[in-house]
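Aim 2 progress. For tRNA U34 carboxymethyltransferase, the working sequence is reproduced below.
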Amino acid sequence: MIDFGDFYQIIAKNKLKNWLEVLPAQLANWQKQNIDNRFTQWINSIKHLPAITPLQIDLRSSVTAKTEQPLSEGEQQRITQLLKTMMPWRKGPFHLYGVDIDTEWRSDWKWERLVDHLEDLQGKTVLDVGCNSGYHLWRMVGAGAKLAVGIDPMALYLCQFEAIRKLLGNDQRAHLLPLGIEELPKLKAFDTVFSMGVLYHRRSPLDHLFQLKDQLVEGGQLVLETLVIEGTEHQALMPGERYAQMRNVYFIPSVPTMLNWLHKCGFKEINMVDISKTSLDEQRKTAWMESDSLAEFLDPNDLSKTVEGYPAPMRAVFVAKK
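Predicted structure tokens for this construct:
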């Protein structure tokens, strides 16, 4: 079982305290529904990780922790074995005491593309929707966030996050809750809300934008990253059963369409601040994620297309104000 008591104590003293009216019951219900052999194995792996007090932590330029004396090769192998019970590791990388978790995605590259466009996070309370292992939560803390909250309903990602947090010395500035955005009340309490790689998985993208808006304080910043296509206003791709082998991809907008959606939802100061095609170096197989990745999702004879014949993944970052 995961103990969320520390998080309850933190938000009882800040602007998230109203969340306590529903949150404990939601998380208790989630834990009842997620008791299976894999979850139990992951929890046991976390328990057997060493309790290390880091001498140095870098969250500003990476997610790195070091001790005064390097760990022995045997200690590093033990940590590696425990963390590999939680494969696949998709979002990272993490560098912990000589153990390098080389994740499928170079999420640090995404962070570098958007960090210069963030409002100052110093002392702020932020939310990351669909946060996976929580890699970006640590980068938000490194950028000065007082409290970084991630939500993602997958049990594996919660366990990966808790494992990393233990290895970072049980840092209480970041927390992951196994919830979906639709389960959150209208908190209107976060200074910045991130939604990265989520919008195209939602049946109703405008409903998702309204849900994100409901979490922001007045004047708060939305940071949204999503797949996009080339095209004019009013154009969006609605793929068939799969897109780049992903299921549950509903709408991939053009940039003008995405800007229009944000405008229709009442956001202000809307800008696209980055657009880039996903490279085979940014998303790939590794020793920590051994199943198919981007190279297998693209047409081998035409890398500008997916195996289904759609345009290859291109991602854009948008910022806007409530």
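Residues 17-321 form a domain with the Rossmann fold fold (CATH 3.40.50.150). This observation will guide construct design in the next reporting period.
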